[in-house]
């Protein structure tokens, strides 16, 4: 979005310029003001511009751009954290704002995410410090990453086999989880993920068929869904970003079907994660039923007192 600001009104935007610039969504330029017979009072212009900025910053595009920038900074800071010594002091908000040339709001979002994950510890009056106890954890249950990355983080080489795709009507339980209307169809994807050629994850992902544009549906399902990670597929092919997931975690005895995919005996204990992913509007965008061979893939969970 392009925004022109007259020199007469530049002062109105001053508090908002860092936020607009850091979003990457808005470009703006300062222009000479045209001569107006009856210019608005400063108070009136301030009210109008505050309303404009409120509407601008609440648009999905602006929110996504701002969130994307804070995510990029968060990932860069994670990489930096891994290079620091245990208990080493971390740069302050002001130092990071100056480094990345972004707003304090964007930096705060990135630091808040790191603190929520337990990667940094903030001590009142002392600063922010690296938490290496948490940083050393490679596979966290409270974080959802692509299966191939999960296997790689566990120290193994990932591969994918047994990919099957089908479309049709959902079972009643899945239709309810995905908030589907009667007659809505789904696309179901089966995949087996291996670590060093040993099957370790059997995953069944279900998406509402309506998320995929009808004119490209056949080719997208045939060429992209089978090969692309589910988060990337949803973002790039369906325009859906997963904001969060709600999961049921349990230990189950492997059925004949699960045992066949995981190459284990029926009845052995496997970890089952059944979850639904939601977008920022709280709409369900995918359902997943996953089975893990915990002899190879294990998880750790960072817990904090309530």
Question: What do you see in this structure?
Answer:
There is one protein chain. By secondary structure, the protein is an alpha+beta fold. It has three domains: 2-58, no CATH class; 62-135, Winged helix-like DNA-binding domain superfamily/Winged helix DNA-binding domain (Arc Repressor Mutant, subunit A, Orthogonal Bundle); 147-292, 3-Layer(aba) Sandwich (Chorismate lyase), CATH 3.40.1410. The chain is 37% helix and 26% strand. The protein has twelve helices and eleven strands. The protein has a six-stranded antiparallel sheet with strand order 6-7-8-11-10-9. The chain has a three-stranded antiparallel sheet with strand order 3-5-4. Strands 1-2 form a two-stranded parallel ribbon. Strand 7 (186-195) and strand 8 (198-208) form a beta hairpin. The longest helix is centred in the first third of the chain and has 23 residues, at 60-82. It starts with a strand and ends in a 14-residue tail after the last strand. Mean pLDDT is 80; it is low at 7-13, 22-38 and 59-65.
What does this entry show, briefly?
This protein is an alpha+beta fold and about 300 residues long. It contains twelve helices and eleven strands.
